[in-house]
Structures are given as C-alpha cells and as structure tokens.
Amino acid sequence: MIRLAIQSKGRLNEDSTALLREIGIDIDDSRRKFLSQAPNFPLELLYMRDDDIPGVVSSGTAALGIVGLNEVEEHGLPVQIVKKLGFGACRISLAVPKTVDYTGPKWFAGKRIATSYPRILKKWLDEQGIEARIEVITGSVEIAPAADIADAIFDIVSSGGTLVSNGLVEVEKVFWSEAVLISSGDLTPDQQEILDEMLFRIDSAMVSRRKKYILMNLPQASVEEATRILPAMRSPTVMPLAAEGWCSMHSVVDEDELWDKIRQLKAIGAEGILVLNIDKLIP
Ligand code: PRT
Ligand code: ZN
Predict the structure, then answer these.
(1) Which pairing describes strands 43-48 and 90-97: parallel, antiparallel, or unpaired?
(2) Is 112 in the pocket of ligand 1 (CB under 6 A)?
(3) Which DSSP letter does residue 232 get?
(4) Smaller CB count within 10 Å for the chain: N or C?
(5) Is the pTM of this model over 0.85?
(6) Is the CB of 161 under 6 A from ligand 1?
(7) How far apart are CA 264 and CA 161, in angstroms?
(8) Of the bound ligands, which one is closest to the alpha carbon of residue 10?
(9) What share of the chain is helix, strand, coil (3-state, %, to 5)?
(10) Looking at residue 81, what is its pLDDT?
(11) Which of 17, 50, 154, 164 has the most ligand 1 atoms within 8 A of CB, as the residue to mutate?
(12) Whole-number average pLDDT of the chain
C-alpha cells in the first residue's frame, strides 16, 4: 500500500483524479473523505490543501504527492520530484500598475511587493542584488496595489487575464511551474514497486496523449514513399484491399506533425484518411 496526497479542491484536484483514472485507478469522488482507498490498486488517497502537501510528503506521512512545483519550491522541504505531469502550468511573475514607467529589475529597490511566495521572491531579489519589502498576503494578491498595500505584486499568472482586469502589467517572469509527482524518497521495496507500476502507466498515458492513430487507403505504388513519411514504432501496418492496386495503411503519428503528414500523404495519393485518438500506447 502507498499513500498519495492530492489537492482536495482547487485547480489541481480534477486533473490529478483524471490522471489516476486514466491509469486505471478507480477513485470514488462522491464519497470523498480525508482518506480513501482505491478499490482496484494498492493506493490510499489523502485529500488536503496544496500548501500542506510538501510537508506531509517530506515527513513521510504520505509517500507520494501531486502538487504544483511552485509549492515545492516555496516550502523548500526535502522531497524528490519524481515526474512532471504536464498539467497546472503557470508561472510566478512580478507585475506593476500599468501607469508605472518600468525601467528594469532595479525599479523594485525599496518598493513593497505583495505575494504568497516570499521565499521564491526573496531568492530572485537576492540574485538581482535588490532590497525590497515583501508583504506576505494569502489570496487576492492582485488587489494589493489598488488598495495601496503594495507597489507591485509577485503572483501566479496563467492566461494573464487577472492582471489585465486589475490594471497590472507583467514585467518579470521569475518561476515556471506545473503539477509534479513528488516522493519522500524513503520508500519500502513494496512501495517502490507500486510507484514503478504507476510511473509505467503514467508514461504510457502521457505518450498516448500526444499521438494519433492514422489509417488511410493508399495506391500500392505509394507504400514505400508513405513508409518514409510515417515511420511508426517499427513500421506501418499495410493490408491489401479488395480493389486491385490499393492497400490500407495504419500508423501512429505525433499530434504536432499530424497536418504536415496528412498533406504529404495526400500528395502521394492517400484517400479516406481517418485519424483516431489513442486510449493507451505501450511502447
Ligand atoms: O485550497 P488550496 O490551498 O488547496 O488551493 P489554492 O487556492 O492555494 O490553490 P489553487 O487551487 O488556486 O491552485 C493550485 C495550484 O494550481 C497552484 O499552486 C499552481 O501550481 C496551479 N495553477 C495553475 C494556478 C493557476 N494556474 C492560476 N492561474 N494557481 C493559481 N492561479 C490563479 C492566480 O493566483 C491568479 O489569481 O489564477 C489567477 C491568474 O490566472 P490568469 O489565468 O488570469 O492569469
Ligand atoms: Zn493553497
């Protein structure tokens, strides 16, 4: 059995539980408690505030956790980052009122900066050789300049919409974050085995997210050329069609390259191209 701490509610909760379901671990959200056990996998879930997750993992209360890298960095506790999970992407940035004539990092010297991330901010200020006053606020940091609590803010940004609607401009991007799987680094052999199985499934899920299954009808004469366009894992699958001189080709392509490949395949006579999502891909 291994215990995994995840956010009980908030921005990372849904994606964390979706990832667990995607790797075949059942979660009963309707009966969400402080602790709950997956019925089909040796995993116990501990639901808590994201701020507490680095602490429970570093103390070993939970062997694993899913939390934003920003929280890990801010707490500075000894946990291992096992895997970046590709969701919850954001950055922590300095922003100033749009009326400010911003001249560069030195502008912050002697200013008051409101933030919930004093440690990450202090590190950046030290690196820049700047002394400023850090005002620690939890929540609604973006209203601090208008309320004259601070001259600037250091806060999480994703789309940038919150800054714009508060009359602020992002001037320094300091820290990039996404959700990460963390570990106490002190697992029993049994727990390590469970983690390895989870990582194997997570890798398969993450690979399949970026891949598409593609199938098409192709003139027999174009097979060699199409194999060059679609290398696939070993080589594409080619099956004869009832129509003389035609075959069906199946392969897997990177989503990023999909439209470029389709253009090339059409140019060599591919027809009836079908693109499907992949549920799981085990390399
Ligand atoms: O209750 P609990 O303490 O668990 O939750 P919380 O309120 O502290 O955190 P929550 O749920 O807001 O965020 C959890 C994690 O999601 C953060 O620690 C980040 O790792 C990640 N994340 C990703 C974000 C955002 N994107 C984000 N946009 N966290 C917060 N925001 C907020 C930001 O604070 C600002 O108010 O969204 C606003 C900015 O968004 P844009 O899109 O307008 O720029
Ligand atoms: Zn929090």
Answers:
(1) unpaired
(2) no
(3) -
(4) C
(5) yes
(6) yes
(7) 39
(8) 1
(9) 35, 30, 35
(10) 98
(11) 50
(12) 95
